[in-house]
Amino acid sequence: MKTENFYISDFCTLRNGKVSKNGEQVYSNLESENIKDFAKGIYKFLELKYPKFHKMDELCKLGFLATEILFQDMEKIDENTALVLSNKASSLDTDRKHQDSINNREDFYPSPAVFVYTLPNIIMGEISIKNKLKSENAFFVSKRFDAEFMTKYSEILLETEKATNVICGWVDLDNDKYDVFLAFLSKKGEKELTKKELNNLYNQ
Amino acid sequence: MAELKEELKEKIIEQLSLEDVEVSEIGDDDPLFGDGLGLDSIDALELIVLLEKDYGIKLKDPKEGKAIFESIKVMADYISKHRTK
């Protein structure tokens, strides 16, 4: 039984060469030829100085940049902000790169820097390191964005005080096709956290 | 040797995705780890792969890398003495 209401304070999307926050477009680059260029453009737009960004795989870059967009106007990020992410393709984009490097026994040089990203939950590690989060985190793989599951899982974290805030959403990448939606959930806000509202925002 | 040092700087920048670093910014004696280029443990593993792939040098013990990867100068010295390709 729900004892308290929670809210969607902020949300952002990265889709089709555009970045939006709370429904307003904040950046676009329709000229970028691939996901790497698109991500680099956002990195420059945000004026970030974080060399480790360039070492991340493209999936991590998308999740990392989306949280930077969410955090843009926040004064302080609570270290107890949980991360609950999901996607369809897991880390398949990087898994393929790793597979390509080990296909030929005569030319067998797997890259450690690629291999470390062959798990989707690494995104949450990168976000946590950058923002000094010491919180619950979980990554789920599903066919599509499951607003009901995300809502319930996040509510449990907030109700049981396992987290003071939650970032939940969808960070998916497969063959340069990407879809990113993140929502910042807290005890304050105008949009009440419901399955319907979260789904509406995802589909905006 | 000067040519090998330049080559190593270019390879390190490319292999380790040091996008904000120029070849001219890496001194021959600058430490590669710690206060220098700030490389990490995954970068060390990448350098071990680079030694084997590009110069035919296979380190028997990854711990050897600590001394070999001290600086570009030390690395170039080691490669010139042990390279098989």
Helix content of chain B: 40-55%
CATH fold-type name of chain A: Peroxisomal Thiolase, Chain A, domain 1
At CATH level 2, the architecture of chain A is: 3-Layer(aba) Sandwich
Gross morphology of chain A is: globular
- What is the global morphology of chain B? globular
CATH 4th-level superfamily of chain B: ACP-like
Based on the coordinates given, report the CATH architecture of chain B: Orthogonal Bundle
Number of strands of chain B: 0
Assign the structural class of chain A, choosing from mainly alpha, mainly beta, alpha/beta, alpha+beta, or little secondary structure.
alpha+beta
What's this model, at a glance?
The complex is a heterodimer of chains A (204) and B (85). With 204 residues, chain A is α+β, with helices and mostly antiparallel strands. Chain A contains seven helices and eight strands.
Descriptive account of the structure:
The complex is a heterodimer of chains A (204) and B (85). Chain A is α+β, with helices and mostly antiparallel strands and 204 residues long. Chain A has seven helices and eight strands. In chain A, strands 1, 2, 3, 4, 5, 6, 7 and 8 form an eight-stranded mixed β-sheet that branches. The longest helix of chain A has 14 residues, at 58-71. Chain A is globular. Chain A starts with 6 loop residues before the first strand and ends with a helix. Chain B has a single domain (2-82), classed as ACP-like (Non-ribosomal Peptide Synthetase Peptidyl Carrier Protein, Chain A), CATH 1.10.1200.10. The relative contact order of chain B is 0.20. By secondary structure, chain B is mainly α. Chain B has helices spanning 2-15, 41-55, 65-68, 72-82. The longest helix of chain B is centred in the middle third of the chain and has 15 residues, at 41-55. Chain B contains four helices and no strands. The model of chain B has no long low-confidence stretch (mean pLDDT 92). The chains are: A alpha+beta (204), B mainly alpha (85). The A-B interface holds A 51, 54-55, 109-113, 116 and B 16-20, 38, 42-43, 45-46, 49, 52-53.
